[in-house]
């Protein structure tokens, strides 16, 4: 093992996960990638090693398998310096309206799993007295919208969890970052109509996460424009908001 | 179906666009009438599938890197910009780069792109050791100079028509720094420009920017840029060995009304450009590789300057012997028309490596024209001069040449077609370009 810092990415095979791993490796971190299918992560591990000459560890992690979380954390060879949760599932709102199983999966993937696992890391980090926790939430959690409130509500819960955790953990030397990307061109959003000027590419999110960690930022809207958009969205009275098609 | 076009935004045509994420998904995606697309920097219709376009930029992983041999294995969707940003600071650069860094490795191989060093170091294909190719028939083969060499040399410069390049192994250049020692020479007319390029034969990099609004005695006046990789001891004290490449921030946010570009604005721009360059002429100075190689990358989406209807690039190469007279004739016609590009590019090329590679020993001239009026007829006229001189047009820039022009310019075509047929008997791989120029109808 080298003496470099370690960043562990949960959801390492997602586009944003890969981008974040690259950003940290470029900055000189050793990287851990965790995902459901470890074999599928191997090309990404090779990519990071070839590009940046860093050490890369691969770990099996399933965000829906909460029973495995304790074992996952204690099974790591070393406690990372930075833990980043990119895990999430957009799902299909229309299906979630009538299919309880689907709605449950969306809620658990975006709120329950990420919150529980980051909560566990927070305990370890607080015991050690250092560490950074990054949760990738969404602007969709800032206000429930007709078109995606199942996903949005879970992200809202996750955002609230992170802000509470931040308030508590900061006293113990642990920093918590909430990342709220808007539209990102990824596998998840492929085929969706994205609003050009509000859309960013995954590497931009990866860099934003690295910057937030290094500069100890609390909440990052990846595109500054979103902060403004959501400020307006949150300020709209419910009577007006419910009539909007957004 | 989606409306798709190349960088010139002409033609705009229908094609189904898919972005597979795994090689297995590529396999499923390919159907009759498919072609690979890299980063869409080809100007015309080369990267548009006859029926389906297979987007490859999702394949952006480096597989392995060996600093001892300067070899890198990577997926075909990796952009040269990414390669430069990743390995530049470690002392390695691609041997050949085109005028924009936002091209994929697959696209650079398929067009066998040339840089400012073609006259002495050859094209992109020369530094490709091997490729992993998924043929139209569905086979996945490794091809190199030794193994499946027909497929290898047909794929270099083959405009994607031999199949989908999945991976490639490239030889990189060791570079002490990311800076270029540049010398600017002022040439008052075409003869002077050609002489300066000839004299620059021994320079690693050379290119001329021609003021194509200049006429009469000034015809062909230009600025010639010569360049060498700067050594560390040539940098100013404290300068970083590798400069930072900024992403294009300021884009062109809307289509310029086609009014903006007219003979007056073009002439004024050229006059200014020439004078500013002339002031730098003489001694040598050190510049970052980014503005040196990729001057246009500073403005994102500059293709919108030409307006909604798009524009055409006309890039020909004329063999050495007949170059002087034919280039003068072309430039004169362009100057008299008055609506050509801000700037034309003139440079020397050497021998190409692939069977269909564009370069041949001679001079290449690249011009931009907005799509309007009788431009298609005018370019046909220019083509007759090119063909008459034994020259050819660059397929990566083409959107409109006639089949006869193409066939006259590429005598190795029948050999290419035979190899293509052996790799893909059913002719599954087809682009809009191949339908226009290659395929039997
Ligand atoms: C501003 C600008 C400057 C340029 N300057 C130069 C220059 O100096 N020299 C030069 O040579 N060219 C130049 N070009 C042209 C450019 O280098 C080529 O068109 C290059 O092929 C573009 O690469 P791409 O990844 O965008 O490919 P695309 O435009 O997407 O595709 C180009 C061709 O490559 C094929 N292709 C792409 N990926 C694959 C793959 N994985 N497998 C098989 N086939 C594939 C496509 O089918 C198509 O035929 C310039 C272009 C621009 C916009």
Shape by Cα distribution of chain A: globular
User: What integer is the average pLDDT of chain A?
Assistant: 91
The total of beta strands of chain B comes to 18
Largest interface: A-B, 10 and 10 residues
Helix content of chain B: 25-40%
**Radius of gyration from the alpha-carbon trace of chain A, in angstroms:** 18 Å
Give the overall shape of chain B, derived from the CA principal axes: globular
Rg calc of chain B: 21 Å
Descriptive tags:
heterodimer; A: 246 residues; alpha/beta; seven-stranded parallel β-sheet; two-stranded parallel ribbon; globular; B: 441 residues; alpha+beta; eight-stranded antiparallel β-sheet; six-stranded antiparallel β-sheet; 18 strands; binds flavin-adenine dinucleotide
Description:
- The complex is a heterodimer of chains A (246) and B (441).
- By secondary structure, chain A is an alpha/beta fold.
- Chain A has 9 helices and 9 strands.
- Chain A has helices at 15-26, 38-52, 69-75, 93-98, 100-128, 149-169, 202-215, 224-235, 238-241; strands at residues 6-10, 30-35, 56-60, 82-85, 131-136, 174-180, 183-185, 199-201, 219-221.
- In chain A, strands 3-2-1-4-5-6-9 form a 7-stranded parallel beta sheet, with helices on both faces.
- The longest helix of chain A is centred in the middle third of the chain and has 29 residues, at 100-128.
- Chain B has 441 residues and is of the alpha+beta class.
- Chain B is built from 13 helices and 18 strands.
- The interface between A and B is small, with 10 and 10 residues.
- The complex binds flavin-adenine dinucleotide.
- Flavin-adenine dinucleotide binds at residues 7, 35-42, 46-47, 56, 76, 98-100, 103-104, 106-108, 110-111, 113-114, 159-160, 164-165, 296, 396, 431 of chain B.
């Amino acid at each position: 093992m080298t003496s470099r810092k370690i960043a562990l990415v949960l959801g390492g095979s997602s586009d944003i996960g890969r981008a974040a791993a690259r950003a940290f490796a470029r900055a000189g971190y050793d990287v851990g990638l965790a995902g459901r299918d470890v074999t599928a992560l191997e090309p990404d591990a090779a990519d990071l090693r070839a590009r940046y000459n860093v050490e890369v560890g691969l770990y099996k992690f399933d965000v829906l398998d909460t029973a495995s979380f304790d074992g996952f954390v204690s099974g790591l060879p070393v406690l990372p310096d930075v833990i980043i949760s990119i895990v999430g599932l957009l799902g299909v709102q229309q299906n979630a309206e009538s299919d309880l199983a689907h709605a449950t999966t969306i809620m658990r993937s975006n709120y329950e799993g990420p919150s529980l696992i980051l909560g566990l890391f927070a305990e370890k980090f607080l015991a050690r007295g250092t560490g950074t926790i990054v949760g990738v939430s969404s602007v969709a959690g800032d206000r429930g919208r007709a078109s995606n409130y199942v996903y949005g509500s879970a992200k809202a819960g996750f955002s609230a969890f992170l802000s509470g955790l931040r308030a508590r953990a900061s006293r113990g030397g642990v920093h918590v970052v909430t990342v709220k990307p808007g539209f990102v061109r990824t596998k998840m959003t492929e085929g969706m109509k994205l609003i050009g000027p509000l859309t960013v590419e995954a590497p931009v999110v990866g860099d934003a996460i690295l910057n937030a960690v290094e500069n100890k930022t609390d909440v990052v809207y990846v595109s500054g424009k979103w902060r403004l958009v959501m400020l307006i969205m949150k300020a709209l009275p419910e009577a007006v908001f419910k009539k909007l098609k957004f | 179906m989606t409306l798709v076009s190349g960088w010139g935004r002409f033609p705009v045509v229908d094609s189904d666009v898919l972005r597979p994420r795994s090689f297995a998904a590529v396999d499923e995606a390919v159907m009759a009438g498919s072609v690979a697309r890299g980063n869409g920097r080809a100007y015309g219709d080369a990267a548009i599938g006859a029926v389906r376009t297979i987007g490859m930029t999702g394949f952006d992983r480096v597989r392995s890197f060996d600093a001892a041999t300067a070899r890198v294995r990577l997926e075909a969707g990796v952009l040269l910009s990414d390669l430069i940003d990743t390995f530049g600071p470690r002392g390695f650069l691609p041997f050949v780069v085109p005028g924009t860094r936002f091209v994929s490795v697959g696209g650079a191989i398929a067009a066998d792109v040339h840089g400012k060093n073609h006259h002495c170091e050859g094209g992109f294909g020369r530094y490709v050791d091997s490729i992993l190719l998924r043929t139209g028939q569905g086979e996945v083969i490794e091809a190199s100079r030794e193994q499946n060499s027909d497929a290898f040399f047909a794929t270099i410069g083959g405009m994607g028509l031999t199949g989908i390049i999945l991976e490639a192994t490239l030889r990189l250049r060791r570079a002490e720094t990311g800076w270029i020692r540049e010398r600017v020479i002022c040439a008052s007319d075409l003869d002077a420009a050609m002489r300066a390029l000839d004299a620059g034969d021994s320079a690693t990099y050379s290119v001329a920017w021609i003021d194509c609004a200049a006429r009469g005695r000034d015809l062909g006046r230009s600025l010639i840029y010569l360049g060498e990789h700067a050594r560390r001891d040539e940098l100013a004290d404290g300068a970083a060995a590798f400069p930072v490449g900024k992403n294009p921030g300021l884009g062109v946010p809307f289509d310029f009304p086609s009014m903006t570009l007219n003979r007056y604005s073009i002439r004024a721009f050229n006059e200014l450009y020439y004078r500013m360059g002339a002031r730098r002429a003489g001694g040598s100075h050190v510049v970052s590789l980014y503005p040196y190689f990729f001057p246009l990358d500073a403005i994102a989406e500059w293709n919108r300057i030409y307006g909604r209807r798009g524009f055409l690039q006309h890039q020909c190469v004329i063999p050495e012997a007949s170059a002087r007279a034919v280039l003068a004739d072309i430039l004169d016609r362009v100057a008299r028309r008055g609506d050509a590009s801000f700037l034309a590019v003139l440079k020397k090329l050497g021998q190409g490596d692939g069977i269909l590679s564009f370069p041949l020993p001679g001079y290449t001239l690249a011009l931009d024209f907005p799509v309007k009026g009788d431009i298609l007829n005018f370019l046909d006229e220019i083509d007759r001069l090119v063909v008459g001189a034994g020259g050819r047009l660059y397929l990566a820039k083409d959107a409109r040449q006639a089949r006869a022009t193409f066939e006259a310019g590429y005598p190795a075509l029948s050999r290419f077609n035979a190899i293509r047929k052996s790799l893909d008997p059913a002719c599954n791989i087809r682009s809009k370009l191949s339908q226009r120029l290659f395929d039997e109808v």
